[in-house]
Structure formats: C-alpha cells, structure tokens
C-alpha cells in the first residue's frame, strides 16, 4: 500500500515517518509541505493512503481531500478538534488530533488495513461470465484493462488475452463492479488500471484511450475528485 504525508510542519512529518517504520505493508513514497504540490503528484501517481494535515497554506487539507480519487483513503491530522465533524462527513478513515501518540496512530492504521483487506477479498472473488461464440469465459474483473465496442461486438482486453463478445456497452457495464466506467461511446475502462490522464485521453499501460466530449465531466470527477 502506497502512502504520502502532506503537512506543512517538518516535525509532524518526521513523527509520522517514524511511526510508519513500524508498518512494513505501508510504503511511504513522498512527503509534501504544500497541498498544491501534493495534488500535482496525486494526479500522476496512484496513492492508496494520504496522511493529510487540515491547516496548510495555499490549500487546506479539507479542500485537497475533495479533489482526490474516492478510492484514496485519508487520515486527517490536525491540532484543531473543531474540524472533526467536517472530516468525518468527508468519509475519512480517521481523524488524529496532534500531538499524535503511537498507540492512537496504530489504531488508525488498523482501520485502514481492515478496510483494505475487506475490499481485496471482495475484488478477489469478483468474476464475470462472457460468451464468445460457442464458449463462455469466466474472467476475473481485476484482469480486465478495458473494453472496446465495435459495431455489435465488445472486446475485453486483458494483459495476455482478449475475448470478443456480441453484447452492448450497457450489457457489459451491468455485470461489472463500480470501478468500471464508460469514457467514450466505444470504450469502458477499469479505473483502477488508469496510469495517467491527459486533456482528451487516458492511458492504461501503453494504450491511449480517448475520452468523449460528453463523458469528460463524469470521467474527471471520478478520477480526480
């Protein structure tokens, strides 16, 4: 699990870095003292967990959290207890009041790990059945990168395989989990596989997938909120 720390106080960053050394399953990949720099990084990298200070210059932690991918977990850190209610309304994993003890930090991390384990178990067991000609394929949804529609056919693209089915985009979406979305009249993508985004397209591995004009608003809200 990849994480970053966003806090304008160097001592607070060093404290959290020291605490994270106790949790080998969480990799710290960056620290930021500026919310705007953190946001720029987050648009390019997939991060699972953000330790986010609320009171920062330029942009507050509350404002930054509203720009993040809904799948990114947030643990707020602050010296001000009055922000607790608002932070929970944003569905943060936890709210840590400074000064933060190792015991309290550990409880917050436990919440993250329990939730991550639950989601992983659900994803591990999610398969779809795709009929292609006389065969029906059982495909794990985590293996699907994207689906391309061409006429009456939809092609499921995986890393080492593709399966062509006679079905509509709607039929494909109805059997897939929520992290799949239509981004163009001819494309459905697994948003967990998106590696980068541009003005008119997004990338999954080395494949550029166009984003249709009528889908842009929903796509950017999904990927960048």
Shape: elongated
Structural class: alpha/beta
On the 0 to 100 scale, the average pLDDT is: 87
User: Radius of gyration, Cα only, in angstroms?
Assistant: 20 Å
**What is the third-level CATH name, the topology of the largest domain?**
Rossmann fold
The tally of strands reads 15
Tally of separate helices? 7
- CATH C-level class of the largest domain is Alpha Beta
CATH-derived architecture of the largest domain: 3-Layer(aba) Sandwich
Strand fraction equals: 25-35%
Layout: helices, strands, pairs:
Layout: E1 2-6, H1 10-20, E2 27-32, H2 35-42, E3 49-53, H3 61-65, E4 73-78, H4 84-89, E5 94-97, H5 102-124, E6 127-132, E7 135-140, E8 144-150, E9 153-158, E10 162-165, H6 169-174, E11 180-184, E12 187-190, E13 196-197, E14 201-204, E15 207-210, H7 216-224
Parallel strand pairs: 1-2, 1-3, 3-4, 4-5
Antiparallel strand pairs: 6-7, 8-9, 8-12, 9-10, 11-12, 13-14, 14-15
List keywords for this structure.
30% helix, OB fold (Dihydrolipoamide Acetyltransferase, E2P), 225 residues, 7 helices, Rossmann fold, alpha/beta, five-stranded antiparallel β-sheet, 15 strands, five-stranded parallel β-sheet
């Amino acid at each position: 699990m990849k994480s970053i720390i966003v806090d304008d106080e160097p001592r607070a960053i060093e404290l959290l870095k020291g605490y994270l050394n106790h949790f080998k399953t969480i990799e710290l990949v960056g620290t930021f003292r500026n919310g705007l720099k953190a946001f720029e990084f987050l648009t390019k990298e997939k991060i699972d967990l953000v330790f986010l200070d609320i009171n920062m210059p330029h942009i507050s932690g509350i404002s930054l959290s509203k720009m993040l991918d809904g799948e990114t977990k947030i643990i707020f850190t602050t010296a001000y207890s009055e922000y607790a209610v608002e932070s929970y309304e944003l569905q943060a994993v936890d709210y840590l009041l400074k000064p933060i003890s190792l015991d309290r930090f550990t409880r917050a991390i436990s919440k993250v790990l329990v939730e991550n384990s639950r989601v992983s178990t659900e994803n591990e067991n999610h398969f779809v059945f795709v009929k292609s000609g006389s065969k029906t394929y059982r495909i794990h949804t985590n293996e699907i990168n994207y689906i391309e529609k061409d006429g009456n056919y939809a092609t499921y693209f995986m890393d080492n395989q593709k399966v062509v089915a006679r079905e509509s985009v709607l039929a494909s979406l109805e059997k897939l989990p929520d992290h799949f979305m239509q981004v163009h009249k001819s494309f459905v993508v697994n948003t967990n596989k998106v590696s980068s985004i541009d003005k008119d397209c997004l990338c999954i591995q080395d494949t550029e997938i166009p984003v249709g004009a009528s889908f842009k608003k929903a796509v950017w809200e999904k990927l960048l909120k």
